[in-house]
Amino acid sequence: MTALDLRQLSFQYGREPAVRDVSLSLAPGDCYGFLGHNGAGKTTVLRLALGLLRPQAGSVHVFGVDALQDPRRARASLGALVERPGFHLHATARQNLAWLARLQGMRRSRATAEAERALELLGLAGAAARRVGTFSLGMRQRLGVAQALLGQPRLLLLDEPTNGLDPEGIADLRALLRHLCADERTAVLLSSHMLQELEGLCTRVGVLRDGAMVIEGDLDTLRARVGARHVVTGTPLAALSQRLQALGLAPEREGNRLLVALGAHAAGGIARELTAVGELTSFAPEPATLETIYLRATNGTAATAVAVAAPTAAATAIDAPAPPPAPLWRAFTHELRTLAAARTLLPLLLLPAAFAAWSTSAYHRSVAAAQARVAAGELFSADAGSGHLAAVRALQAALPVLALCLLWFASQSVAADLAADTLRNTLMRSVRRGDVLLGKLGTLLATTGAGLLVLVLVATGTAWLWFGFGDLEEVSRRGDRQVLAAAASVAPVFGRALWHCVLPLVATVALGLCASALVRRPTRALVAALLLVLGPELLRDHLHGHAGWLLTSHLPTGLRDDSVLGYVSAIARGAADAFWPWSGTAVSAPLLWTASALAIAAICLRRLRVA
User: Are residues 346 and 265 part of one domain?
Assistant: First the structure.
């Protein structure tokens, strides 16, 4: 049974090939040294193995499971650290790990215990309650390894795991990896260009050069292929070196010793020749080091630049664990937890409510001022105010603010995760990209519902406190009252209008999510979202009677309002000729915008290359 089996993987960025027919495999208990210079393609291979990139050709199997066809099940067996670890900087180390453990399918109590176990393993138990934003580079690297160990995976893919670690941290990590391979039979693929960190640790190696595997296989077999060199020490060293050259050998001087490959020469004969020209202190074989294998492979030495076949294993998925259930629910609750922990959520949700309260207060002051002028004889009559009209005015003022806040949240949902490298951590768990997209959408819809509910409660609550929900009456100088708008006729229209506010907000969220999937940088994603919502407004003059298909026709913008709220406002003022010009597209237009935006977002997220 192979833990990881990559076959003929190929990938290119644009027209430039990054990975060319790469194959490698490792069995349970193997520690695989994946070697290559910076830019050789090691990280790209790991991204392909994890599904962060989709190969143009080739296959990936994890414990016999086709990772391209069944990524949830494949990722249930593995943990990974790829390049720089990404975390939510405002949250603590314990929170970050517990959230990822919950996303992996663990219950709350087990997730907390697993987070504590991983922190203890990496020496971070004392910093568990600290915000990750206060961590040093080395501490974040340790935390990156800790998140890879969540759930005790049977396969670990670690990309340059010693980056930023001090010598003590490197020693601790080496000891941990030895324990995992030897005692727990965990398969570890260790990508690095620091050969001294892998020496004595790896049982299999593969060397990548310019995106192609130049050598791959069992370390002992590769050492035998390279051959041992003899170490020569003695005096005078220069005379010993000259004698070896005279015998047709090519000694390499390394400090106060010589290294020489004997080839077909007998060791005893060479020793006698050296003794004849100097004092020979030692003459013994030295097995090929990892550095020797690497250098000869990268220099293209024919004797070593040969792929070594991996041990054959039956490609069966019997030992592969089943993925945790309910991936969509796990993705949704993960997004909800991380969003709820953000310090900006509550203020931004309360901001529209504050606008609503301010609008109702301003309307109350204007009504009171008009009544004072009537009492002073400056006006013949003025209306006494209406709770329905006050609530509608509050919604007209606050709904654009809520839409902007939701658009901001939605536009950052993917782009901000990409910028913080937290999306990679999510996609390395047993969820598909579609689960992540729907989880983000569900979280944004829950936020939309909460924001709209708070807004409506504040708008109607303040309107009821100051005016009640009776008829709108005009009061004359003599105290006569005339009904301008009966509450019985306004109330049902007002209720239906609240429901018609939901779909345009959903469409706004969908457009923000679409922009976030289209544009990788958070600021640009926000600008793109604003253009998607407001840009089509420039076409209004050319659409004539078809302007109802514009999303801005169904939302108050603060500059104009021919949405359902404008219609209710006219009815609440007693206008007999009030009409709603876009009632025919009140449902179809927002639904069309929503469906189109989500389809584009799904396509973009599926094709997204996660760094």
Answer: no
Dist CA 52 CA 78 (whole Å) = 14
- Let me know whether 16 and 153 are in one domain: yes
In this structure, is residue 301 part of a structural domain?
Answer: no
What's at 294, amino acid-wise?
A: Y
Whole-angstrom CA distances from 430 to 107, 159, 242 are 15, 20, 62
Distance of CA 217 to the CA centre of its chain: 33
One domain, residues 157 and 247: no
Q: Is 83 part of a structural domain of the chain?
A: yes
Q: Please report how many Cα atoms fall inside a 13 Å half-sphere around the Cα of residue 279, on the Cβ side.
A: 4
**CB atoms near residue 260 (< 10 Å):** 21
Alpha-carbon distance of 511 to 591, in angstroms, equals 12
Q: Output the DSSP codes for 167-211.
A: HHHHHHHHHHHHHHHHHS--EEEEEES-HHHHTTT-SEEEEEETT
From 199, 223, 247, the end of a domain falls on 223
The answer to whether residue 314 is domain-embedded is no
Nearest to 569 by CA among 389, 366, 382, 363: 389
Sheet holding 65-66, edge to edge: 16-26, 4-13, 57-62, 65-66
Quick count: other Cβ atoms within 10 Å of Cβ 326? 11
CA 279 to chain centre: 64
CATH of the domain at 112: 3.40.50.300
- The amino acid at residue 251 is P
- CB atoms < 10 A from the CB of 32, how many? 27
Tokens of 327: 């991936």
426 and 483 share a domain?
Answer: yes
pLDDT at 517: 94
DSSP string covering 466-491, please?
Answer: HT-S--EEEEETTS-EEEEE-HHHHH
Residues 383-423 pLDDT 10s: 989 999 999 999 999 999 999 999 999 999 999 999 988 99
Domain, as residue range, for 254:
229-286
pLDDT, one tens digit per residue, over 341-366 is 888 888 888 999 999 999 999 999 99
